[in-house]
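Consider the record:
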Amino acid sequence: PMIRRLIILLLIVGCVFAHEEMGELEKEMLYKQNDRSPLLAGLCALTPTMGHLYVGKWKRINPFSALVISPAISIILLMPNKTLKKERTIISNTLIVPKISWYFLQIQDAIYLAHQHNANLNKEIYGKEYIRPPKKSIIQKLMDKKEAKKDSTS
């Protein structure tokens, strides 16, 4: 038990001082191993929720809704059954703009999250902020507004 505690203590102390002793090459390698490509995040996001999965923020986009509910609604609305055809057409036409808008917003958000991930990684490894912080996505702005409203009411 004592040796195990000593090993754990040495690992913790080693981790604390590891970033201090790293040279620029090691820091650059660590950054390159952990950064996220905004372009790849956007391309992954062409398949709903995959851009968020790539940047490690999958739950942010509500995967159940994006992968189960939305396709189920689409299948129901596109069914060739003649019953309620007129109503389905009206509902489908009403939902198409919000669905397409949400699709593009989640792509933009995945790209933003990749930039934000890289900015945070840069600060963690190099100890300094990005020269130019990433521009927030519309989804992030909405989340910030919701959080500010929640803070002001409590």
In short: The chain has one domain: 24-153. Residues 24-153 form one domain. Residues 23 and 29 are 10 Å apart (CA to CA).
